[in-house]
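Milestone M4 deliverable, item 7.
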Amino acid sequence: MKTRNYRTARRILHLTSLFFGLLLLFGTATSLCAAVLIQSIGPQEASITIDNNTGEWGGLTAYQGDGFESLPEDWQSVTIAQDASKFFFRYGLNSNQTGYDAGGQTGAGALVGNFNLVLDTDQSRSSGWIGTGGAYGIGAEYLLSGASLYQYSGTGEDYSWTFVSSINASDNNIWDYELEITRASVGSPNAFNWFAWADSSSTDFYHNNASAGEASGTYFEYTATGGGGGPEGAVPEPSTIMLFGIGLGFVMGRRKHFSVLRNVLAH
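Output delivered:
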């Protein structure tokens, strides 16, 4: 009788440890497969007037640059700042075309819709635009397309946007644009994730791997209140990797007890 009780207790102990290992394994696997956060910046407080006086941007940190890829519409850099009521954006752009600027042919005017930047203001991929086939690692609620602001009105993969307002943008400084939007127009987020792209013969993504899907898609973050690290936060923490290893160890060390679990369920 004692031997039987001992065996029963061992079975319960083994099955409990197996269950615990599976919880760790599958729970941390979700974090390990998240999108990839390249860089988080902010808050950057500044007093900026949209007037092509780029000296107002002095001392502010730009995001990691995107090298010139010799395209008709080519992203080079982005800088983001804020004041109490607005977000400011500075675009560094380029082109391999002679006599061409970010407004189209030289002298055409305001920034055109070939240059796009999306904002994930709730920092959750479960809402917003994720691209056809889930191409992107974030879910975007807002789109800055040229000098227009749009809000997402689709169901996730479809490219469906509703016009919100025109954007105050400089249009005289070729390849160096500054824009502003009110914080309220995008829901006054404490932080947002973002990536950008330019439409041309070959699409230029900024960051280059933004379209690599849910598990590998890259993005940047701006935080208006400090702290950073939104829920999509993609690069796994060392503790996450450690827990994944522990869970894997539990499962691998208890492989033979899958048969025990099967027998228990069968009876």
